[in-house]
Amino acid sequence: MNAIAANDLKTRGIRCVEQSMGEDGEAAITVHGKVRYMIVTPEKYDRLREAELDFAVREARLDVAQGKISATSIAEHLEQVKPCRAR
Hints:
The structure is a single chain. The chain is α+β, with helices and mostly antiparallel strands. The chain has 2 domains: 2-40; 43-85, no CATH class. 57% of the residues lie in helices and 20% in strands. It has 4 helices and 3 strands. It has helices at 6-12, 14-20, 42-65, 74-85, and strands at residues 2-5, 26-31, 34-40.
């Protein structure tokens, strides 16, 4: 991962980003020597987002398998949690 100082980005603009993007498709923007932002290619962003969504689906399926979900209406759910809210 290549780092871009915020000041370089300010003075050199997108050219600085294009030169700093590594083969891994990412670059970090640093402010006062600390990484504050990440830049990724659209392809890398899509892969990261897909992985995040796949993880969420796996978690949801595990919740279903463990019986942690309820197939009730909103009104029924509110009645079920009403005693908890009164505390």
